[in-house]
Design goal:
- The structure holds two protein chains of two kinds.
- Chain A is mostly helical.
- Chain A has 14 helices and four strands.
- In chain A, helix 2 runs parallel beside helix 7 and helix 3 packs across helix 10.
- The longest helix of chain A has 27 residues.
- In chain B, strands 6-7-8-3-9-10 form a six-stranded mixed sheet, with helices on both faces.
- The longest helix of chain B is centred in the middle third of the chain and has 16 residues.
- Chain B has one domain: P-loop containing nucleotide triphosphate hydrolases (Rossmann fold), CATH 3.40.50.300.
- In chain B, helix 3 packs across helix 5, helix 3 runs parallel beside helix 6 and helix 5 packs across helix 6.
- Chain B is globular.
- Helix content of chain B is about 35%, strand content about 25%.
- The chains are: A mainly alpha, B alpha/beta.
Chain lengths: ~325, ~250
């Protein structure tokens, strides 16, 4: 189990290292940078959704907390981005405790309700608190990150940095699920009663994982703020929270790798589909067809219909099937000889 | 004088107007196999759920080694050393057989979320220890060959064995079996009976709810008969078999 994860991690590192070599256009690299933020948030969310079995509809708000904390403190007080990132994490932890503790003490999907409300409130605050957040106009001139004297101001530099952060996050998440705590989480997902009966404090675990995933999102938000150097409330709304959940579900929610696949796919897919936009004329009326939205929808729908375990689940069952066929043929060849 | 491990005092549980457990008084001796029998709906599983904290009593007291455990949560009660199995087998079918038992070591290990995040599994001493202990219990139930199989794909008989091993991995002082033989064939039932005998020998007190009378009479030290939530008889298997009240409860007047 663990060995396979390390192999995957090696392959993943190789593939990501090749991406900037293959993509000459900085625009495409920036798409991958945005994908890395989603990926980081999704890794945390996957722990919550796939392992603790809890739905959160407010993770974009945690990204927002990270982004705005970093944005505000660096532009107003010129604090170091690393310190503001840390403060963002602390604020996220405090808010996650405030939202998570009352709703996760109960059984059932109360967290989804609580985070939905919390996400909506935070979005309104971001729009309305003009003095702090700049309102709809947002915050400008957020400084880029400075990594031991290396200023991360180009897409390529940031690409390597943000994906390194993702790899560290991934490593942490993989360590976690292959540990005592991770087994406890999987147990809680398998049967909450049985988990309780062997002494696992399930509500405490759910709260801890919720906080843990909020931290991942907050860091993603801080990175985002220092990458684009300009933030407005737009990307931190409910729809982005839903998109993050969709990424985890499409990739396969019971595996951390599913979150990686899902977030990469859904972050890159709209770009690959954008070639299909154009005008067409029927019955004398000119349409601007959103083919991309249509195709995007069809892809999502068919993944959920035909691969209920997500892309990762689909891949691994296909792999098993091939392995079985090979094994059977091998046996046949042996018995006939 | 044998020490009492578990004691029910005037235990009462109402579900709305239904009285599931009615002023139950009972003690369980340390190191014994005590069986609770009774017609369907007599309140046997409710007694288990009350004991393990899944339900809280309407009135009365449950004492474990003389301390009241009424208000504790299930995971707190488990940490005192009370393990249980479920009537509908509850193995973690998203994990392998070995991992199922490793989860059972939860209370006997202590790494938290932060150390689990930072230190990879192969560098953790505790992880190796957990695995070794789990393998020991797997050996105990005679399923060492199945360690890497997904628990969900085991036949029911083996799932029950696994559930028992998971409970034993906690190293409990008291273990509650809720109909361990239901749905099993004669051979599997025999194996469960042998296993329960082995558990008693290892010094763990056993409380058993079961419908298989042959199994009950075979392995129990004490049998308590419950009907409509109250105890109508208690004694050795031989005494219970000739008790008038028991015969009436089971067969009618």
């Amino acid at each position: 189990m663990v060995i396979r994860d390390y192999i995957f991690l090696g392959i993943f590192l190789l593939v990501m290292a090749c991406v900037p070599l293959l993509l000459k256009n900085d625009y495409y690299i920036s798409i991958f940078v945005f994908a890395s933020f989603n990926c980081l948030a999704c890794i945390g969310l996957s722990l919550l959704l796939g392992y603790a079995g809890q739905i959160s509809l407010g993770h974009a708000a945690f990204i927002g907390i990270g982004a705005y904390t970093s944005g505000y403190l660096t532009t107003q007080f010129a604090w170091s981005p690393w310190i503001t990132m840390f403060i963002g994490v602390v604020i996220s932890i405090i808010i996650a405790i405030a939202v998570g503790v009352p709703s996760l003490k109960l059984r059932g999907h109360y967290l989804a309700m609580a985070t939905l409300g919390f996400g909506a409130i935070l979005y309104i605050v971001a729009v309305a608190a003009v003095d702090i957040t700049g309102g709809p106009a947002g915050l400008n001139n957020i400084p880029p990150l400075n990594l031991f004297g290396l200023i991360l101001d180009s897409d390529k530099k940031f690409f390597f940095f943000s994906w390194s952060v993702v790899v560290i996050g991934l490593l942490f998440a993989l360590n976690l699920i292959n540990s005592r705590v991770g087994r406890g989480l999987r147990a809680l997902h398998g049967s909450e009663d049985a988990a309780n009966s062997i002494g696992i404090n399930t509500s405490s675990y759910k709260i801890q994982i919720f906080i843990f995933s909020a931290v991942f999102s907050s860091i993603a938000g801080s990175l985002y703020a220092h990458y684009v150097t300009y933030i407005d409330p737009g990307p931190f709304g409910i729809m982005h929270s839903v998109l993050l959940m969709t990424m985890v579900a499409v990739g396969g929610m019971h595996k951390i790798w599913g979150a990686v696949i899902g977030s990469l796919l859904l972050s890159l897919l709209p770009e690959f589909l954008s070639f299909s936009t154009g005008y067409f004329k029927t019955f004398g009326i000119e349409y601007k067809p959103d083919y991309d939205t249509l195709v995007y929808g069809i892809i999502l729908l068919s993944i959920m219909l035909f691969l209920p375990e997500g892309l990762y689940g689909g891949f691994s069952s296909a792999f098993r099937a091939v392995k079985n066929i090979v094994k059977r043929n091998g046996k046949k060849a042996k018995s006939s000889s | 004088m044998v020490e009492t491990i578990l004691e029910y005092q005037e235990l009462q549980k109402n579900f709305g107007g239904v009285v599931a457990v009615n002023k139950l008084n009972m003690t369980v001796d340390i190191g014994s196999i005590t069986s609770i029998i009774g017609p369907n709906g007599a309140g046997k599983t409710t007694i288990f759920n009350l004991t393990t904290g899944f339900l809280s009593p309407t009135a009365g007291n449950i004492k474990f080694f003389g301390n009241s455990i009424n208000q504790l949560k299930p995971h707190n009660i488990a940490s005192l050393g009370i393990a249980r199995t479920f009537q509908n087998v509850q193995v973690f079918d998203n994990m392998s057989v070995l991992e199922n038992i490793m989860v059972g070591r939860h209370l006997r290990s202590k790494s938290g979320i932060l150390s689990s995040t930072i230190i990879p599994p192969f560098l953790r001493k505790e992880e190796k220890h957990i695995k070794r202990e789990a393998e020991k219990w797997l050996e105990f139930i005679g399923m060492a060959d199945d360690s890497q199989i997904s628990a969900g794909s085991l036949p029911l008989g083996k799932q029950r064995m696994l559930e028992i091993a998971r409970a034993l991995a906690m190293e409990p002082k008291l273990i509650l079996f809720d109909e361990p033989a239901s749905g099993l064939n004669a051979r599997e039932t025999l194996a469960i009976g042998e296993l329960i005998g082995k558990i008693k020998e290892s010094g763990v007190t056993v409380v058993l709810v079961e419908h298989d009378m042959e199994l009950i009479m075979d392995i129990s030290d004490i049998v308590a008969v419950i009907n409509f939530g109250t105890r109508i008889a208690m004694g050795t298997p031989a005494e219970i078999q000739i008790n008038e009240d028991v015969i009436t409860a089971y067969l009618g007047d």
